[in-house]
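Table S2 (text version). Query chain:
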Amino acid sequence: MATLKDVAKASGVSTATVSHVLHGRWDRVSDATRAKVMKAIRKLNYRPSPYRTRKGVPPSMNLAFILEEAEPSPLFSKDYFAKLLDGFFEEAWKRGYSVTVDVERVSIDGVQKVRHAFDGRCDGVAVMAPVIDSLLVAELVERGVPVVVIGSDSQGKKVSTVDVDNVACGRMAVDHLAGLGHVRMAYVGRVADKSSSLERLEGVRTRIAELGLPEPIVLDGVFSKASGYEMADRLVQIQGADWPTAWICSNDEIAFGAARRLNEAGIRIPEDVSLIGTDDTLVAQTATPPLTTLRQPLQRMGAEAARILAERAARPDAPEEHLVFSVELVQRASTGPARAVKAPRPVAHAKR
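Corresponding structure-token output:
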């Protein structure tokens, strides 16, 4: 098995320099030296030896990435999750860490499983989009495990967080649609237990009130195409002055499902309804029509989560970090000027 000295010899540097590279102290080495060390690590298949960190526990050189979800969902096939993982894997690997990925149900059983599986076997855990007041996050914090929460800032200050400015996200969506002349809007999302979606709704409501527009219609579902389809089915029944000509969806999956139902009902996008998603995932580009959306820097968010955990492993007393990124409006074909006619009459419910 290769040792630290073997890596140092193969790359022509000192063992201290190799240690700097492994522990992310890149301000002490040049890019060329770091690349040379990483090449030697790959060639020798080097795995760092355990050293003592928090509370005397030897590190595993493994980071965990957990998605906490309330119900079964094929999230590993979703582009949103894939982009976050891509950034997380790349950064973890550069720092000499392996990654364990798991999906846990929101339950006591899920917490107990994590307690058994990860206790002492990883140096930090990234939890993706936990529910509000997550039992899983509380359990990890109680056990002294370094935690980074991605996509939520509702877990208190005992954990680091990586998120976007969700309130600004909601406001940006309203400004875009109001600029196109839309007055009556709907918010189609998951608001029961996800802080990110609740914060976007807060931004939507606040900006709508500032503009003197009617309160938005709010529908609650889950982050899936099927849920978007079902919520759209309820909205297409609305007629007359209450018809919302602009729908703000809390992710692209919901917007994709909503677009499918609108297309089946013969309701034109964007002539009859403007539709805007969030995330800028692959489904936004492949929807009919392609979706206007609010892009999150997902790969960078994943990378920052891995960086924070690796640095906390090297410096257990380091303060928590709270990173907030901006979103970017990506305008495609699903939003357009508001129409000045009555609500379209939907065709009969199509079979799925």
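Notes on Table S2: The chain has twelve helices and twelve strands. Residues 49-58 have pLDDT under 50 and may be disordered.
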